[in-house]
Amino acid sequence: MQIRDLLAVLESVAPPHLQESYDNAGLIVGDPGTEARGVLFCLDSTENVVEEAVRKGCNLVVAHHPIVFRGLKRLNGANYVERTVMQAIRQGVAIYAIHTNLDNVYHRGVNARIAEKLGLVQTRILAPKPGAPDTGAGLLGELPAPVTEMEFLLAVKHHFHAGCIRHTAFCNKPVKRVAVCGGSGSFLLPDALRAGADVFLSSDFKYHEFFDAEGKLVIADIGHFESEQFTIELLYEIIREKFPTFALHCTEVNTNPVHYL
To answer: What is the reported pTM?
Structure first.
């Protein structure tokens, strides 16, 4: 089996044309015609992840975030991006990223997995693309039964192993309708407000953006890594269903660059 055969399975779920124009999803390092020996799934492809892939006999790393995002003008090991790419080439490890195209699909996408972890039902795309209700950014759903704002945030902190949750003031009303967006989701706040969400769970909100909640919902910023961490197991499951006996591994490296004191 060649690397392209594995990538075809992923792209059947999240076609490359669904990625945003600024993104760099796809095969970043490697030859798709290479015989695949094993796959390591991760959120971020780093030097340590490439080392782990080599140790485990994998010659394909499937990451959510593209290691090359803004482009490379030279390769001399000046930063972790260059060093990771150089190491992957030296070790014969291919690197593939499945980023905003996986964010933008409803079924089996990043946000669907978040909603599943929260137990949300009656879900739909929060900001669907025109003419495509099952494609777009974010997800909206409902809890089976209302809970208090504190109960909801404590449950989120537990299930997502969050070091902390940055949030706006409580609105002192039950939480029933929840909007979610894995990764940087502040651009979807107006959509969450229009949808009548009680809580918007995402990450990477800037200070002044918290004011934009206007006391109408609770913004819950749980951290970028924390919001997308379950994407690793999602990717593993997609490939395992098609190739149940192939050598598949989820990374044991915690690539979260943010630590909490």
So the answer is: 0.95
